[in-house]
């Protein structure tokens, strides 16, 4: 038995489907068992799925979101651990602010700003502001250690280390989410507003 093209040439009225269809998948204009084969270069070059740029962009945003959340949690945890001592007049906290000459108003004000930073960090749409506030507070804490308290008060450097870690976490959150800031996001530069990680 001849091919479909031979039958067509013999005048039997059968279309020469072998030139345009192959028996894989479904075709738009043919039998369900046939698939349209691209016949021109332009058809073959058409994308059939999401572009690599779109996929890599989504991949980067997903990783940035995870890193941001990690920084938010770390910063909020460090600030949160220190809050009770500031508000409940823990002797260690009182001693620190006495050395700084800011007891009790400085202790209360610092505790209040840190509480605000914790709330901002844990809300996605305000996390960038929480990161900025945390970084600013920790700059003050680091300078206080370097200038007055010492890196290891009473031989314990844990307070200084936590201040440095909280600063890095807050600054990292602010940098990752910088496009969510009105001025930076509006002016753009390397910022694409569609790259927002507010989630």
Name the helicity range.
Answer: 55-70%
SSE pattern: HEEHHHHHHH
Largest beta sheet, briefly?
A: 2 strands, antiparallel
Let me know the average pLDDT. 79
Global outline: elongated
Instruction: Please tell me the total number of domains.
Output: 2
Q: Please work out how many helical segments DSSP would assign.
A: 8
Poorly predicted parts: 16-28
Radius of gyration: 32 Å
Structural class: mainly alpha
Number of strands: 2
Please give the alpha-carbon distance between the first and last residues: 64 Å
Describe the structure.
There is one protein chain. This protein has 199 residues and is mostly helical. The protein has 2 domains: 41 residues, no CATH class; 133 residues, no CATH class. 61% of the residues lie in helices and 2% in strands. It has 8 helices and 2 strands, in the order αββααααααα. A two-stranded antiparallel sheet has the order 1-2. It is elongated and about 50 Å long. It starts with a helix and ends in a 12-residue tail after the last helix.
